[in-house]
Amino acid sequence: MANGYVAQTMREPSQLELVMDEWKQSWRPGVAALIAGSISYSLFSAVSSLFVEPLERQFGWTRGEIAAVHLFGIFIAFANPVLGHIIDRYGVRPVLLVGSVLTASGYGLLAMMQGSLEYYYAVYFFFNLVGLSTTGLAFTRVISGAFSRTRGTALSLGRSSLAISGALMSMILFPVITRFGTAGGYLILGSLILLIALPLIFLWVPSKSQEIKAGRLRTDERGHRIRFLLTRPKVGILCAAAALNYAPVVSILSQMKPLAISKGLDVTMAVGAISMMGIAAAAGALLSGVLVDRFWAPAVAFVLNLAPAIGCLFLVQDHVSPMAFYGAILLLGLGQGAELDIVAYMIAKYFGLASYGTVFGLTSVGIALGVAAGATMIGVSYDHFGSYNIALMVASACFTCAALCYLAMGRYPQPGAVGAPE
Question: How confident is the model at residue 420 (pLDDT cuts 50, 70, 90)?
């Protein structure tokens, strides 16, 4: 009887108990990151395809001209490591506060468009640049700083909230854009940041000094310079993996509604496909988060990148049945759920928190360059070939290469190694 009692009291806590314990301690920054991150700049990637055809009709622009704005990411990409270094040095809170105001202003400027393609390009450049400060670079740093033992699960919850937000907002934005035009859609997205995200960040995201005081960031932990990090092979491998994973997802999402229609789906089912992908991404994020807390993260990433590679191949035909299309979207969504949360987990695991922002910024360079090329070329590819089939085959190859790159990350570093996690 006594031995049984000791065994019961000495049992290891379950994953759910670990999550609940950490959330009791860190629920404020966790909730702020989950909600604010799900309605800030990153949300636009999930719903941007809803604006493509309305912009075509309103201003007479081609899909290639509309998609060309993604080329700006080539130039803006190099601001990511600088922004990450600022976060490492001054903390994430001031970056998020300023960035939220500027990103909402970008939505307001987009709502004021009158048909000038040059104005659209100029405002979109500004929007992309300031929007960097309210992406996963900042919000995953909030979560990674607040959680340790269940960091993967916490990051996956953050990713799931963004996926759910994308699914819900696509259903809200479609009738709004239909009734009020693209301006109405932009204004709703900007208002969400000002009225919800900004207050949450101000009240619940801790400053760097608060993190140090709470013991979440050690005062003796110093981040590495960009030049040093660039010499480390695993930084380059992770950058390549992140880009090859993220770029095809964003590219396909940016054309999801017209892609679905080109495969034979009606408008209602095409909009539903965006929501379906968001729901699948939420499930994929939760699955990946729980798995990386228990298993080797590169192996989890490998499996969850093969799923969208297969999904893309399902769509490489002129006409796809609704069931087959939604099945492919399910696989793509699972891969989408394994994007930034797994990358964020690996950064903290392989390189530690002191260099977190800088390393994330470097991976963001690869992501932004990949997105700039992919999201532009998918529109150009449609204009040239009259279908999305070539772009889908390229996307499948990218997912496969990403899966292999993740495996190349190797074992986790041992405590005390250079750049090892805290």
Answer: very low
